[in-house]
Amino acid sequence: MKGKQVLLTGGTGGLGLGVTPAVVSRGANVTIPYRLPKEVERLKGILSPADFARVHFIPANLEEEASVDHLINRMGRVDVLIHLVGGFSMGKTHEYSFYSWKREFDLNLNTTFLTCKYSLKSMWEHGYGRIVTVASRAAVEPAAQLAAYSAAKAGVVALTKAIADETKGTNITANVILPSVIDTPKNRESIGPENAHKWVKPESLAQLICFLASEAAQDIRGAAIPIYGDI
Hints:
Shape: globular
Number of strands: 7
Strand order of the largest sheet: 3-2-1-4-5-6-7
Strand content: 15-25%
Distance between the termini: 31 Å
Order of helices and strands: EHEHHEHEHEHEHHE
Radius of gyration: 17 Å
Structural class: alpha/beta
Mean pLDDT: 95
Helix content: 40-55%
Low-confidence stretches: none
């Protein structure tokens, strides 16, 4: 990815703290959208000053189309999109609010659509692109009390596969990864750390993501790759 213009969403989050250093270390020019300044400071604490200086931070709301359009215009060119933004909430379907249902789709699926849409416009213009999205094991193995999250992440898989089909015959690829539980501080807090040794490490996900985002992965398109750890 050396010299490539990379849009890395969610780069300041729990997964991003593992992925961002790996992307930067490969010589990419990285742009990270953010909502709160404290998110930038958290990332600053784990990157060397030289690496931090190579990351461009742009405030953006990825749930708003105009904001995503503005973000891509400011970048000028997108060679690689790595979309990490997402989240989940739990609840029995008959008790789950419609507001929460829509929130899951906004956060997980709609942000994926908007960032893919505008990144693709740039990729089509210069004939090169790598798109890596993050769904979940729940997308292909839905679980109780995760109906909204599972449905939204299944949409991410379908969207990514459709993009891969649209870009056949080009040097643009799109692939999606399916992690199980990721070993992040938030998951340790909400689920408990007892089984964290079985979860997928962000650094392990970073290796897979960086490969799919590289020129070497030119023959992989439309793949939905499970990475489940020991669960």
